## 1
Amino acid sequence: MRIFEEMESEVRGYIRSFPALFDTAKGSEMFDEQGNRYIDFFAGAGTLNYGHNNPAVSEAMIEYIRHDGIIHGLDKATIAKKQFLQKFRETILAPRNLEYKVQFTGPTGTNAVETALKLARMVKKRSNIIAFTNSYHGLSMGSLAVTGNSFYRDESYGVRVNSAFVPFDGYFGDEINTIDYLRRLLEDQSSGIDLPAAIIVETVQGEGGIHVASDAWLKSLADICREFDILLIIDDIQMGNGRTGTFFSFERAGITPDMVTLSKSIGGGLPMSILLMRPELDQWKPGEHTGTFRGNNLAFVASAKLLEYWDTPDFANGVAAKSQRFEAGLSAIVNKYADTEMQLRGVGMVWGIEFNDPSFAGELSEEAFKRNLIIETAGANGQVIKCLAALTISEALIDEGLEIIDAAMQAVIEKRQQLRMGSLS
Amino acid sequence: MRIFEEMESEVRGYIRSFPALFDTAKGSEMFDEQGNRYIDFFAGAGTLNYGHNNPAVSEAMIEYIRHDGIIHGLDKATIAKKQFLQKFRETILAPRNLEYKVQFTGPTGTNAVETALKLARMVKKRSNIIAFTNSYHGLSMGSLAVTGNSFYRDESYGVRVNSAFVPFDGYFGDEINTIDYLRRLLEDQSSGIDLPAAIIVETVQGEGGIHVASDAWLKSLADICREFDILLIIDDIQMGNGRTGTFFSFERAGITPDMVTLSKSIGGGLPMSILLMRPELDQWKPGEHTGTFRGNNLAFVASAKLLEYWDTPDFANGVAAKSQRFEAGLSAIVNKYADTEMQLRGVGMVWGIEFNDPSFAGELSEEAFKRNLIIETAGANGQVIKCLAALTISEALIDEGLEIIDAAMQAVIEKRQQLRMGSLS
Amino acid sequence: MRIFEEMESEVRGYIRSFPALFDTAKGSEMFDEQGNRYIDFFAGAGTLNYGHNNPAVSEAMIEYIRHDGIIHGLDKATIAKKQFLQKFRETILAPRNLEYKVQFTGPTGTNAVETALKLARMVKKRSNIIAFTNSYHGLSMGSLAVTGNSFYRDESYGVRVNSAFVPFDGYFGDEINTIDYLRRLLEDQSSGIDLPAAIIVETVQGEGGIHVASDAWLKSLADICREFDILLIIDDIQMGNGRTGTFFSFERAGITPDMVTLSKSIGGGLPMSILLMRPELDQWKPGEHTGTFRGNNLAFVASAKLLEYWDTPDFANGVAAKSQRFEAGLSAIVNKYADTEMQLRGVGMVWGIEFNDPSFAGELSEEAFKRNLIIETAGANGQVIKCLAALTISEALIDEGLEIIDAAMQAVIEKRQQLRMGSLS
Amino acid sequence: MRIFEEMESEVRGYIRSFPALFDTAKGSEMFDEQGNRYIDFFAGAGTLNYGHNNPAVSEAMIEYIRHDGIIHGLDKATIAKKQFLQKFRETILAPRNLEYKVQFTGPTGTNAVETALKLARMVKKRSNIIAFTNSYHGLSMGSLAVTGNSFYRDESYGVRVNSAFVPFDGYFGDEINTIDYLRRLLEDQSSGIDLPAAIIVETVQGEGGIHVASDAWLKSLADICREFDILLIIDDIQMGNGRTGTFFSFERAGITPDMVTLSKSIGGGLPMSILLMRPELDQWKPGEHTGTFRGNNLAFVASAKLLEYWDTPDFANGVAAKSQRFEAGLSAIVNKYADTEMQLRGVGMVWGIEFNDPSFAGELSEEAFKRNLIIETAGANGQVIKCLAALTISEALIDEGLEIIDAAMQAVIEKRQQLRMGSLS
């Protein structure tokens, strides 16, 4: 591992949390150089909803490469892109009565967010964008301006221009409806919050610590956007692709956003991002926004293949069953260790436990890794354990993983007790 | 092709310039659905320096996929990443006495640029960045602030924060040394140009219209940066990876930048970007700058394989020979049509012809495509024909392509003569 | 009056609300060209707390001019400036145990605000400033970024950089303590609200519509600033100089801000602004912030003279009595016209009535002016009648003015009834 | 003087350069507490073009105060304002065939500049503003963004938004026409310099170090503005009011700017600023831009009185004669001390000598003050001695002042010789 220390920037992170040299992976299992097996409750931060090296994808990719299919296409027309568009329309958009146009942006999430914000400002001719507390939309300068966590910004370089933050659902306790507060700010032309071009929101804040917006809150948000002529952008980069149980995370609320950003799992693990927009908003001039890797055709091949999961309701049904299994298992753990103050939150296949003692989550992740489970922390202080297993995970692996969490909980608690007794004696 | 019109955003560009439905590609040839063959003098805007579907890469990728190698790794340690780092050190850095640390950024060029600018500001605790006229560094908000072309910005959304533009080499005629002007601005604390954290520059401006900075100018620029304690960032996204004849484009000037951005061809057609930095500058905190696709392991596999081209001097020697062939061929065309005012510029395997009549270049590209040559325009008004063939192209294909350019020139000139005569009669 | 229409910019405002050609004024009475007398409940938007042409000031000014005293001094030392500093220390600072240093800024309020924000950012090395809903701090670009009302900003030119707005006391109903919300935002490093250099606040929002922060809220705000190492800036431009009953408006809350901006009445009607700062914050380099009119010596003469009002408690006692007279009189009106929905708010000598029907206030102001009372509207929609009489006004004039308000109320109500009946018939 | 040290901010500057406690002043003479007399070659940084305590003004002010004339009028109509408008139209605008509308802005120069920039952006719906190297337009955030000197900005607080700097006349040597460079930047949509709403310029840069734009350069600038549909704003705050020999400084070039900012001497020493604009540009909504002291009526009285100087050509003729006296006297000094490298520059009644050794100017100012002459330095490094005497100064005082400069030159040179000899021995 020395070469990473010698050559890779100090910014490296996960190599520190999960110090193994990984070699191969399949479904929800990863294997290191020595052949040690790890259960993956992380799924590439939501990029591997369909598992590592999904066989159907591997097959399709190999075939495409063998065929000498176009790999890098900029925005030229290619067979692979055509097939992706057809499949996406047929399987995803049409059954949901959605008529979005598709923009292929640079290949990573922040490129889609930047594109959405730029288009929103251009169309609405307004500069302000509203985002929410604990939001995460990416780290390039445009996206960073709507990302809550100040860790990613530093006084020496960062400026916030034309963005404003308002409280997410539940941010100020259960009694206070934060949409009422938003309405007050919008109605009052003297609130300091200029009428925005758009509001950008995650229906479930993943990096922010697994905060689930209620259906009613999302509906009110959509209503308020329509009422004030504000574009609603759902950032579905982490929560789309079935993560919350439906393909789009906003389906549960019965709303239709003006724009949707998709990335992470849409390319089956390969870099790919798209922006969906209502056709009226598609006011770009040709070539006005570009990016070298907006035509990653290998990702189009993978994507078209994976969208087949959504051809029948079976896949969603399976996810629902696994969701319940997760919820039940984690609830049991929360109840078992009732002395440790923590809250379980989640929906679909995204679950988190927030610990009142922020350092608990990091220790738990560490103990879990010792027991060969990969599970990440989230939240501003890393105070949340985040379960983000692949949607294709088997029930057996879920159970095995939950048992490791249980054992790791026990281990952290015991270690802390010993520390406390040690400091007493 | 109807589905692209129906579903893809109006922003699509190259599909309009090159209206074919492409299927496969090999080396410097592309084939459309009907099996028509095209010669590629575009090379994915510099992403395919080693040709389409380079056999060595295809083989390595298939093997890696078959092996179930990690595809998406965030910044976990993987065998593929380790091998890339080793190969990059051994083949590229060590022989050139470079001791850069490597940061894996988001997978497209603009992510590397954003990372470089953020780090420069953080380390130097200064907000300003200087860029050059006709520069192109990407379109996310941070990069856009140092990109010259206002087409990509629109009054309704764009702000320029903390960046300043100064004239590139030769911008104001041959007599004026623009470095002297830069020195004047830096020495004068009242010039309005605040001492910058960094100066970012392309050694050859590709998108800007093939402007080649001289060795002396680049050396003076490096000197002035050292003298004023300014970081020098070479954006080698399009001009690195051998495009100008050496692996890094700045080698010809004998300078060592503080940071270098690499992307496009570094991943052999797959999305990948890295930032190189002098070790002292690596002041990041773990996880302080991240990105979902900073661990695109398939690209690492492709990259490590392609770096083998640089193991011996043969490759660079071959590029030099082809460079001369291009220069000679294009010079002949320029001389042949001496009535058409145009200038040839270039170095290595990047050549451009600027036409005094800006619309000529677009018509030439169109006529060339009718004859099955893919060649793009560049420059603020699309006034330049840009030859950016793969470095691996055969001499026969170069000649064939040049003949098409010749024929297309003839066709444009004739068409114009007919138009003129038509309007006279 | 035609010359104003011909030559003065369309931006002119009060000349439209109060269409008379004014000639002279004395105390709380103004006289137009024809000798018509008006009672002044506006006091130059709080600039004339000590009345028009206060005899003591007029005398001192004439004497100073006759003596050929320095009029314009930049920041040279002058006798007039020395006497102002001595008087200000002796009469204002020392008795209140305040040890502020004084910076003479440009002569109008926004210059003092810009200076305070710049110094706060420089000292704390943080870019963010927090301001409140409905705040008004001036219209030059730095101050405008912390002014709530979007009327003063326009999408075509304005950017908000490095400022964030949070709710003022009572902004979201009586049950919600907005300081708790502020605390939540500050504690959460992922709230999107970066730790600010300073919080700037008016203890009573005048332009914003007469919102009075409670003593407890102000105390909590001061506590939270200390706790999070944030500078507290009280913008006392309109509410200082006795407007709320004490010299500084924050005295009632028993807090000591880090900085205080003073302007308007401090110069007795002549342009003058100062910034007070705790000595540790005075980290300016000589000449680092300047302004042509920072040494308006005629204003220093006026100011020193007027500060004599504060030598004994008599003046404050008199203000307290008049405050009660205002409150009682306005309460009686509110009760008398109980069918008209309105709320009375205020403290000291600043009182406002907010009407649920926003256009009521403007009509009332118009009717009052017909009856020779000058009274302004405030609030984002001009929905508030603002009583801002001079502190030196006589009880007789208060009563006379209140009677006019009563009559004007009656007139507006009758007019509306007639309109309603008219539209019915 | 102790109270200034104890109570006034460290930012104080001129009190350090001219350490006397001033009491009275008349014309071009000032007197300190002890009755010492000083000749004033500084004139309040250009605020006292008509001398200290001009008798006509003093008389008019006293009369106005005695009459209880409105002192503070916001933007209400007053007799004093009406008389100013009439006089300004009759004496200044009409004879010059100018049809500007007048906006009364906040009372100091930077308020007028902020107003001009805001209006330009609003009208043109473009964000960028172009300013020049060595420009000085004020220190509030909007103006600071177009002020060249970085001393007034500090990395910890300052951002440059939407402004760009280009070289002033002669900035890069006599051979290079900087207007050609500007044209190149504007014609090239990829230059990084977005088409600006306005270009703001001083015809003579005062604070920047006495740089005089040539008539031809100014004419070309006006032409280029018209050609590219850019508003031309002349900042005539320091150079207007006759400083360069005509009332407006741009008269010599025969151009008509779109907007003009006036302040400093327009109020005869009292704070006053106005913005002049072509009527078509007056697109403000009522009250859209305000300021407490935009109706400083005492300044209107002073101003109307002083404009009488321009009723006949006598005044301008007198200024021309004095200008020649200054030029001749300073040239003689420059020639006399030919061993000291320096350049004389100027026009009208603004003259500067730039010393190759920057510290020379400061020492000269110091020696001059010892001999009772007040003369300031200018330029980024204080390398210029700036003669800015009142236009009303007598020839005798000019001569006396020039003799002091001569003596001070001698003293500095001798001191330096002694130092050199001391360090040799």
Note: Chain C touches chain A through 46 residues (CB under 8 Å).
## 2
Amino acid sequence: MSQYWSDILNSLTPYKAGEQPQNRTYIKLNTNENPYPPCKKSIEKIKDLASDELRLYPDPEANQLKKAIADYYNVPKDAVFVGNSSDEVLALSFLSFFQQKEPILFPDLTYSFYPVYCSLYNIKFECIPLTENFDIEIKDFARTNGGIIFPNPNAPTGKYLETSKIETLLQQNQNSAVIIDEAYVDFGGESCIFLTAKYPNLLITQTFSKSRSLAGLRVGFAVGNPELIDGLNRVKNSFNSYPLDRLAIGGAVEAILDREYFDRCCNLIIKTREWTKEALESLGFYIVPSQANFLFVKHHHYSGKFIYEQLKNRGILVRYFDKDRIREFVRVSIGTIEDMKTFIDAIEIIINLPE
Amino acid sequence: MSQYWSDILNSLTPYKAGEQPQNRTYIKLNTNENPYPPCKKSIEKIKDLASDELRLYPDPEANQLKKAIADYYNVPKDAVFVGNSSDEVLALSFLSFFQQKEPILFPDLTYSFYPVYCSLYNIKFECIPLTENFDIEIKDFARTNGGIIFPNPNAPTGKYLETSKIETLLQQNQNSAVIIDEAYVDFGGESCIFLTAKYPNLLITQTFSKSRSLAGLRVGFAVGNPELIDGLNRVKNSFNSYPLDRLAIGGAVEAILDREYFDRCCNLIIKTREWTKEALESLGFYIVPSQANFLFVKHHHYSGKFIYEQLKNRGILVRYFDKDRIREFVRVSIGTIEDMKTFIDAIEIIINLPE
């Protein structure tokens, strides 16, 4: 607290990202990074762009990147918004669409940045409980609201909702914005981007940090009706004219263009996820069905905190959430097959420790 | 307008940055970019960092960069905040410190993003007129306020205020935050960073886009009392955990470390500014005294708009502001000596056109 702070600062509880320890090397299975490197062309492009031209501002509209995304998803360029990570895109979206009289709705178990954005922008919200099996129940969202948001697949569960159910939600909810946060959709789900042409209140957000292996570059985007995108641009141009640097624009364009490498990485991660799932099941774990690049798992005997701590002692980081309903769980990002073998070996030792 | 927009969107008038035409090559003297490339070590470092590690998130605290800036300015590391451009740092600062009951104060002629941030965050403001000579008069700011901000040197005038006058302001204004935006201070001014240890309400913002030749990389920072910096971190961590990518952190660190190259570029720009000033004076221009990397100039006969348009026709971009009190002026960024000779040649032709 400080006498110079705005009131809003005193009421904020900032988001806590997963640990990023700088002191030693861990097998990092805690922040859903991609275990495979970015495509070679991204890296080459960034090296090319690391030149004298960095003295010049980037294109404030990042037109090249918008065009690449629009072509990839077969939508008009003015249906695409880009930003410095999907977190920034989400933050600007909350401000653009969710400051309403009625509360916005999101699941009780979901991306924990959503309530933080609400406190930052003074947005009322209500949490809709997931079912006992961690399902999003569409009919529970059928109430007056100032907007609806959830990730699909959801985080930290990994559970995926069929696009037909999201279309049902859109049919029942036409008076406020609906944001589907597709950070993890490329690991087995189907994107709802095709629905944006039909539903003017639908915004899809995605990130380059997961399926496109560029967490270190900070690029996210949104696709929606040009009227929604126009709103986002107005807010962006009232906040920071040039959120994407020259290297990020160029590197992200190449990542979109290299479809073959992208498919290969996603498929490998899906295969490794299924291998890990079976191995954990055989060791007495319950696993939430996942279409994401992580598994949300609990052991029938050991707590989430115990497993998290024991793994950390052994140089493996996973994510533990000290939160009602999910204290028994840990979230395990899918690494390379070698990472996951090391992880399973460590788990075997941990669950067989003498008590 | 759209039924899905928050109310705030309907009242926003976004900031308009200087033109960044993508269609043809101009001599760009319109957005105060540095005519000299970034230091070689920045570029090498970025090439090194363009690697498989881009799959991993950056350090959310950008500790390396904070340390480099802290060492350079001889302040504690927790007195330093970094962000994705000084525009982002300013936006977050407005939200952190300026949402107050009383209006904030800034000059009538100044960086035109300030009123935009105010409309984004619903902040009241009052404009304090510059004197007829475009001076900031400290005594005019002696009134109840929720905060004070101006650039030093000011934009778009380039006029510099002695640090002793800023200390007078701080002595008379201890109950609200004072932000000095030092985007242009390295071209002949003295930074007020040394005053941050003494005045807990003083925040200094700076950018890597001007004196450090990295407009294309998007890095800005702030220095102030750790209590102010803590407030900024809370807001940043409620908006976007990782605003600076791996390449931006590494490239900016090298730019701070290479003091010799930095000094050389700044001195060259100062020398070229003085040459340009004399050349323009001899052609009938009035020039506001400038300690920045631009000159704010008017011709005794031709309007600012005419000169802007005539220069643009000749492949030279300068900045024209269609705004009361300054319609007669154009703002000319200082390029290389070759750029400025071309500019002066064009000006000679323009002012001798048959009417």
Note: Chain B has two domains: 7-37+260-350, 40-258.
